[in-house]
Amino acid sequence: MTSRIQARFRDCRFKKDPKPHVKDAHHFLRYLRSANAGHVSRMLHICFLATGRTGKRRRLLARSELASRPATSSAELDEKARLTTGSLDSLGSGSADRKYREPDWLDNWSVDKIKAVAFTQLDQQKNDWPHNMRRLVDPARVLPTENSFGRPLTNKLARNKLKKHWASVLRQLLPPLPQGEWDQLGVMARGEADPQHYKMPPRRPVAQSLSTELETAKFDWTSYVTKSVRSLERGTSRRMKSLSGREDDDPRGHGRPIGVRVLGERRLRRSIYSRVWETSPTLGTNPWSGKPTVTWGNCEVTLSRPRKKDLQFFQGIDKNGRPVQSASGAAAS
Questions:
Q1: Which of 53, 71, 249, 251 is found 20 to 30 A from 178 (Cα to Cα)?
Q2: Is 33 within 8 Å of 203 (Cβ atoms)?
Q3: What is the three-class DSSP state of 245?
Q4: Looking at the whole model, is its pTM more than 0.70?
């Protein structure tokens, strides 16, 4: 996350008009402060950005983890060229006599890895995930083989349709994480990490004026005359309070900001780390078939043991929920 912030700063460092970039920086700084104050949804979004579930790192991970393996010998290079030339024939889009075509961007991606991740994501995904996969992933079930006149598609048209299909799949795909990062995320989601990973960093102290004289805030009555009260007090509302940092002057007391919670170890582990780990796969290789295998994060829900005073409610009941018959009652029956 630090490298991403530094890159955004360097991108607009020498712009002619820095005002819009400074405005955007203040906007994202307020967002980070709100997440650090305990806003659960904003903190979850930042964790999605840091792990590549959304944002720029998602595209970088997809390019690095789903790229096709380069050829290591001349035989593999010839085999790859042969598969590239006959890739359209596998869809049944024309005759076997194919002309050589120029390589495109799809040749740099491993279609087998994309298929493996997409199919497993379709089975694992939930409604609250940052990206949901489409139901039909196999191009043989989606792409047509003939045009409206019943004739086979041309080479260029069939290839363009194939690239458009895989581009739509990549837009909805959650790329796999490196094995080391995925293991570390699983340790944090299971609660086995160091205590420092479950503590929120303290906010830096606010800069104070160097002047010794105390400046008293003056009441700006002109704003209340020219503007509506709703626009002036929007920053003190419960929904905007964690972003603006302002406090209202309500005599009934300060209302609690909406969405802000105390992010302790339990809430961080269940509400943040577990949800991020569930949306993070990792890629492996089957040693027997050589095909890619996908493993998704999964946190098992364990039932907590009841307290002693709660056990009195279950006295006289077996594990199946039926009353336990006493020895005297069994003999009488």
A1: 71
A2: yes
A3: coil
A4: yes
